[in-house]
Design brief:
- The complex is a heterodimer.
- Chain A is mainly α.
- Chain A has helices at about 1-20, 40-50, 235-240, 245-265, 280-290, 335-350, 365, and strands at about 305-310, 325-330, 370-375.
- Chain A is about 20% helix and about 5% strand.
- Chain B folds into two domains: about 1-160, TolB, N-terminal domain (Rossmann fold, 3-Layer(aba) Sandwich), CATH 3.40.50; about 170-435, 6 Propeller (Neuraminidase), CATH 2.120.10.30.
- In chain B, the strands form seven sheets. In chain B, strands 2, 3, 4, 5, 6, 7 and 8 form a seven-stranded mixed beta sheet that branches. Chain B has a four-stranded antiparallel beta sheet with strand order 11-10-9-32, with no helix packed on it.
- Classes of the chains: A mainly alpha, B mainly beta.
- Chains A and B meet through helix 4, helix 5, helix 6 and strand 3 of A and helix 1 and strand 1 of B.
Chain lengths: ~375, ~450
């Protein structure tokens, strides 16, 4: 163990000795040049500098000589450049003519189609045998079952269970009054000694399948009915005591009448049909118009005026420009309403130039549109 | 029980049926729109003779500048035009103008007569409707007055599209300022509303303040320190002749304004250290005192019908706005917001009052209803003051002064919606503007 220390110590000592005495920290001397300097006096320096010339500064700049006028210029006899003799056109040999292609081999004659004047008889397709679907299908008959024994089998006795609770023995008291529970009277429960199985049932004649109902035939146009004067109520009825008016029933009738009047399509309305305009379709039209409704140039009075504009539409969703009309206005003078209408008209024409996105199958419902332009949210406050 | 069921069914029908079926036209309500300048096309007017070539182009440019300067219109550049107007009477190809989204088209022609007279005619078209907006108009004038003719054309176009009167053929009197801030020279000047045709009405020997037009625009009231004290003068615009309104020696009169009748002046008079509001018959010089309080009452302004006067007073401790009858009486305070209110001016329409408000170290130009409600601040800066209304009550012009030693005053205009803030071109500094009525 100590041998290792000795070896290590000796190694370190040798290393330290080599570092100090082996010349590791000795730097070689740098070489330098030595220049001899001679000292001169001030008189010698002036004598030396006297030979150097300082450039003169002048402000007079000689003007460039003006160009001689053309008349002063000596006449120069110009001789035309000798015209080079026209070069002889180089004659080039014509390229050899393209080889004439050889006549191609004649196409093989197509075989003439055999055409017969008589139309071939086409065998009629085999007719499908039409088989009427049965209105009823035979109900599968269940297999017969054995008859049930006429005498019911006595039920097995229930398992006896011993209760943990001790119950006192009941002593019959003959003197006590017996209270019988009242029971509702009725027919005794129906009972039979024979069970009828499906196998014994006779098949019912009732249809088990239903035929798809036919479409309703078109309703005939109602014949015009001449108004007939309402017959006066019989005096006998008038003499009867008038029934008390049922206010609730009246209200119900009024509501129904209003709903029906407002909802039923009248023939005068143009026979509107198809599904109703959805709120999304209304909103799409509203958004499309309001994008073009520019109220920036309207007067403050026009911004207080609500106008109702009527417009007829073509089937491709474009407004008929000639049909644009002001149906009414509210809140301002006639002049202000006119400005508001013109602004609304520009909005409809501009944004409807390419057609509004309206469902074509509901054209009957948007053939005529009334737009109310209410600038309440846009006015200067 | 049955009745309830019926009621329920009826209610369901009421709500369900209108959605399921519809009678008559489809009805929708538009309640939202856009606020943006209306694009218009204004090709150079047609020169009907060679002498009118330059005028035709210049008049068209002034018309366009008038319209675009309102912020309500946007001119479509000529480079976008598909077709040109080569003849005043040739039919308009509306499809070409629709294609570049021109919603209005102005077509005009100019001719110069042998005597130097100028005739300008124009037509305005609603391009998308494909029809003319109103009838064609013609204005006759002199070559020197071609700008006024152009303003009149612009007024007519503006009026036909917006529905309210124009304000382009009007002038502004103001105080022109020159020199450094500590030695500023002031004189009265008058110009077109757009800064053109500047004329100086006074020299700069005496400080002048607060010029105000008469209802007809032919006279000007202003305050001058010519006598050493502030004193009110009335000047005839055409002859530039002037005279001082009668006041006692030593009294200071200032802040004058005409009544709508043009014969009465309402103003402030400081006498004995107290400032009150007076009214004076401008012909007889008879004055009537309208307020009598120890506080300072000033900046009176008549309502358009001449029945009421709005003014500022510090009787409550701070500067606030009050309204009283034209003959005086108990005033009613209308400003209750934070800050100080001053220089109220009644709108020509009579519905709004413009004012200067100082709050939290900032100055604002604002408007409020005549009962003080719906106060809106339109501007904010280091110093905004002295509003004046355009003849149609749509635009307000005021003074804005910049901060610092080199700060200068200039004129700005703003729409009563708070949009379209613009600086008015003036020669040098300018302050205290007063807008004239439309010229006749």
């Amino acid at each position: 163990m100590r041998i290792g220390y000795y070896i290590s110590g000796a190694g370190h000592v040798l290393l330290i000795l080599w570092v100090f005495f082996g010349g590791m920290f000795n730097t070689p001397p740098q070489s330098f040049e030595v220049t001899e300097v001679s000292v001169i006096s001030g008189a010698e320096f002036e004598a030396m500098m006297a030979g150097v010339q300082t450039p003169e500064v002048t402000t007079d700049v000689a003007m460039p000589a003006p160009e001689l006028p053309a008349e002063v210029a000596p006449p120069v006899e110009s001789q035309p450049d000798p015209t080079p003799p026209p070069a002889e056109p180089q004659v080039t040999e014509a390229p050899p003519a393209d080889p004439v292609p050889q006549q191609p081999d004649p196409l093989p004659q197509q075989a003439e189609a055999e055409v017969s004047d008589e139309a071939p008889l086409i065998a009629p397709p085999p007719q499908e045998e039409v088989v009427l679907a049965p209105n009823t299908s035979d109900r599968p008959v269940p297999r017969p079952a054995e008859r049930v024994a006429p005498e019911p089998v006595a039920a097995p006795e229930p398992d006896t269970q011993v209760s943990d609770a001790v119950t006192e023995e009941v002593v019959i008291d003959d003197t006590a009054e017996v209270v019988r529970e009242e029971t509702e009277g009725g027919a005794p429960e129906e009972a039979t000694t024979r069970i009828v199985t499906e196998a014994m049932e006779e098949p019912s004649a009732a249809p088990t399948t239903s035929v798809r109902p036919r479409t309703r035939p078109a309703r005939p146009e109602p014949a015009p009915v001449a108004e007939t004067p309402r017959e006066p109520a019989p005096q006998q009825q008038a003499q009867q005591p008038a029934p008390q008016p049922d206010q609730t029933a009246d209200a119900v009738n009024d509501a129904l009448r209003q709903a029906l009047e407002g909802g039923a399509a009248s023939p005068a309305a143009g026979g509107q049909s198809g599904p109703p305009i959805t709120s999304g379709e209304r909103d799409a039209l509203r958004v499309a118009v309001q994008q073009c409704w520019n109220v920036g140039s309207l007067s403050s009075e026009a911004l207080r005026t609500t106008v109702v504009v009527g417009v007829s539409m073509t089937e491709d969703g474009r407004p008929m420009n000639d049909s644009l009309r002001m149906l009414g206005y509210d809140g301002g003078s006639e002049a202000a309403a006119r400005q508001a209408f013109e602004s609304a008209r520009r909005a409809i024409i501009r944004c409807g130039a390419n057609g509004f996105n309206l469902p074509r199958d509901k054209y009957a419902q948007w053939r005529e549109i009334e737009m109310t332009f209410n600038p309440e949210n846009m006015r200067i406050r | 029980m049955m009745t309830r069921v019926l009621t329920l069914l009826a209610a369901l029908l009421v709500f369900a049926l209108p959605a399921a079926a519809q009678t008559g036209p489809l009805r929708i309500e538009i309640t939202e729109g856009v606020i943006e300048p209306l694009p218009f096309a204004n090709p150079d007017f047609v020169a009907e003779n060679a002498a009118a070539a330059d005028l035709a182009r210049q008049i068209a440019r002034v018309v366009s500048e008038d319209l675009t300067g309102t912020g309500l219109f946007r001119e479509i550049p000529a480079s976008a035009f598909i077709s040109q107007i080569t003849s005043f009477n040739s039919p308009v190809q509306f499809s070409d103008w629709r294609a570049i989204n021109a919603q209005a088209l102005i077509s005009g022609a100019v001719s110069v007569g042998g005597d130097g007279s100028v005739a300008v005619k124009f037509r305005l078209y609603d391009v998308f409707a494909g029809q003319e907006l109103g009838d064609g108009l013609q204005f006759n004038g002199t070559q020197a007055g071609w700008r006024r003719i152009a303003h009149k054309v612009a007024d007519a176009v503006y009026s036909r599209i917006t529905g309210e009167g124009g304000y382009f053929d009007s002038r502004v009197v103001y105080v022109a300022e020159t020199g450094p801030k500590d030695d500023r020279r002031k004189r009265l000047a008058i110009m077109d509303y757009d800064g053109a045709n500047v004329q100086y009405l006074t020299d700069s020997n005496a400080i002048v303040l607060a010029p105000r037009f008469s209802p007809t625009g032919d006279r000007i009231l202003f305050t001058s320190y010519e006598s050493g004290f502030p004193r009110i003068y009335v000047m005839d615009v055409a002859s530039v002749g002037r005279r001082a309104l009668p006041t006692l020696e030593g009294d200071m009169s200032f802040a004058p304004r005409f009544a709508p009748d043009g014969n009465t002046v309402v103003y402030s008079l400081t006498t004995g250290g107290n400032t009150d509001i007076y009214r004076m018959d401008i012909n007889s010089g008879a004055a009537t005192r309208l307020t009598s309080t120890p506080s300072i009452e000033t900046a009176p302004s008549f309502s358009p019908d001449g029945s009421r006067i709005v003014f500022e007073s510090d009787r409550s401790g701070t500067q606030q706005l009050y309204i009283m009858g034209a003959q005086g009486g108990e005033p009613q305070r209308i400003s209750f917001g934070q800050g100080r209110y001053g220089t109220p001016v009644w709108s020509p329409r009579g519905d709004l009052i413009a004012f200067t408000k100082q709050s939290k170290g900032r100055f604002h130009i604002g408007v409020m209803r005549t009962d003080g409600s719906e106060e809106r601040l339109l501007t904010a800066s280091f110093l905004d003051e002295g509003p004046t209304w355009s003849p149609n009550g749509r635009v307000i012009m005021f003074t804005r002064e910049t901060q610092g030693e080199t700060g200068a005053a200039s004129l700005y205009s703003v729409d009563i919606s708070g949009r379209n803030l613009r600086q008015i071109r003036t020669e040098g500094g300018a302050s205290d503007p007063a807008w004239s009525p439309l010229q006749r």
